[in-house]
Design brief:
single chain; alpha+beta; three-stranded antiparallel β-sheet; 2 helices; 3 strands; signal; SPOR domain-containing protein
Length: 94
């Protein structure tokens, strides 16, 4: 009986301390304010990936992606639908 009371007191104290030590508000700041995100909208030197699809003998623009993996998934999806697709890298001026 005494062991249960001591254990309950320790758990209650640990829970109360854990709840009072947590931050009260969340901040939406980046983890390192001095560094830019590599694929964020403010990063000017990123490449774009243009997905092209062949339509009646010529290439039409399907969509532009910021990420190579997203563009590759779109090409795979178009090829599964039986369409001819490719990726063209659009380089930004550096």
């Amino acid at each position: 009986m005494l062991r249960k009371m001591i254990l309950t007191a320790v758990v209650a104290t640990g829970t109360a301390v854990g709840l009072t030590n947590s931050p009260a508000t969340a901040s939406a700041q980046p983890p390192f304010p001095g560094l830019k995100e590599p694929h964020g909208p403010g990063f000017p030197d990123r490449d774009d990936y243009l997905v092209l699809v062949r339509h009646h003998g010529h290439w039409d623009r399907y969509r532009v992606f910021d990420d190579w993996d997203d563009a590759q998934r779109a090409v795979w999806r178009l090829e599964r639908q039986g369409r001819d697709a490719s990726i063209e890298v659009v380089r930004r001026h550096r």
